[in-house]
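Fold sample X.
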Amino acid sequence: MKTLLAIPCASRRAATPLLTTLAFAAMLAACGGSGGATGAAGIDPSALKGRWITPSNEAPAMTAVILPDASDQASAWMLAHDSSELVKLLVRSDGSVNGMSYALHPGNAAGQAVAGQVTAALTASPKRISFSGVKAKALALDQSDAMSLATVQANAAGSWSATTGDKARFTQWTVAASGDMAGSTTTGCNHTGNLAAMAHSSAYTVQFDERCLDGSHATFRGIATINRSKNRLTVAATTVDAARGIAVFFSQAR
């Protein structure tokens, strides 16, 4: 299984908190999928649940995790394999999608609004979805995983650490068996929050507050997954105002 992740995004003051870490190509796992081919006019967002990856000959190379989060809609978290971009989309039953794209690099470019359509061929082998309008050209992705088992809460417990690509920043999280989390970064930020296992998906919901020595404060919400070896924790989240997006790859601390 490949693994994705890296860095904070959007405008920021002196201390750039989270990380720029990346090792990804198959992030955050999700679940199942069913149904037949559907077009932009009428689609069941819950049928898109799962992990999706662009074919090897397609560019840009991206992985998406789609999780239903309300009636007739789902959240899609998409990461570029070269660590350059995080896209967070809301998928609706009429096939429309909209959200934000975040450049994942030390410049911390502000998030940019994106919108488009999704179509699905769910009887194909492999199942395929295609987003138009979100990128410069249509983005096709094939389902690589459909995990239907609930996530085990205890698997998130322990100490986790991550560094940026240039090893200039270090983040440490300690997660209790209950899912409560506390951590800090070498850039002067403290994190407190929670990871909660999803009942019907192989993923966790994540929420944490970030308070930094420069006086800045932000609340992040997103998702996380753990690899099959249980030694990699992948987190993707945005601030509640959608101004910043982050993707962080943790290793189990020894």
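Fold sample Y, listed below.
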Amino acid sequence: MAVSAKNTFSDEVIFKAVDAFAPYMIEAIKNIARINSVQGEPTPEAPFGIGVKYALKQALFDASELGFTTKNVDDYMGYASFGSSEEYICAVGHLDVVPAGFGWTHEPFGAEVAGGIIYGRGVLDNKGPIYACLYALAALKKLGFEPETQIRIIFGCNEETGFGDLEYYLAHEKPPVMGFTPDCKYPVVYAERGRLVVRLFPRSGKPEDVAGLLNSCVLNTRDTGETFGIAYAHKEFGKLQTKNYRIDSQMRYVEMAISYPAGITAAELLGRIQAALPEIRVETVLNWDPVRFDRSSHLVKTLQSTYERVTGLDGTPVTTTGGTYAKLMPHIVPFGPSFPGQKGIGHLPDEWMSISDIIKNAKIYALSLYELSR
């Protein structure tokens, strides 16, 4: 389908359409953020617990009220769709959240507003951003835009604790031709590190040797892997990092996560650990290989352009040490919502996102969905 003049809109027209939806978007975000969607006890009707199921039900209701076709993929994921083509592009985020924890000065599920900022678990990670995508699409729909390629806003339910939702989705739905997840940072992220989780068992089986392993290889050492023989650096990704250490309740093993750059494989890392610590048995818990896109690809260049057009900032693509749905969903990259300088907000007490940033995100996402779907 050729792009007609009727189906062409200037950036400013799109931005004004987003501004018109902004008050409704903010109220909807506050409403969804008040739902406690920490993963709970699974049931046949609620695979990730009743709170997550309720959040998905609310999101699909909100999408249908905006005039979109919706589908619930057996309470594992759900989506709003716009357009009729077989292929689709997407924005995929998640509605599940980490536990509130301690140290809050605002009600964790209160969605309180103070000084132009919304506070609450999930406001940034990731309900606010995926709702920004939903309302960005609503703004395009209101303008009369007709996408050449179907657009889906996909709501995940198990991002924080395993990606079981996305595995189920991909077993029942085909993947997008391209898209993004608003669950990381700006500018557009063209590559993610791999993530390897291992358990280290002393061959002696003695609890005191687990403590010795912790003392000698973890405590008072750097997080760059030297004590495990896996120190590695890459010119684009930076240095390998070890993190998220834990000991099981029976003192049988030390578990750790390894955030590793492209250029080295999980098999090579396992071999290096075994060579450095022959008295230790290494067990793999999970591995996601690094993800890397060509920085000159249509997807990456388009998202770089839309970010620069909205913000006026340098949109040179970057890498990330984090892990998102891009690990498993083909053809997508991380894109937003945090701007340069905004770090360590998502899982901490008083998680927040400013109303002005939410609206700015919606403008970036509206422009991105518009351009990618043409």
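Sample Y note: Residues 45 and 153 are 22 Å apart (CA to CA).
Also: The chain has a mean pLDDT of 96.
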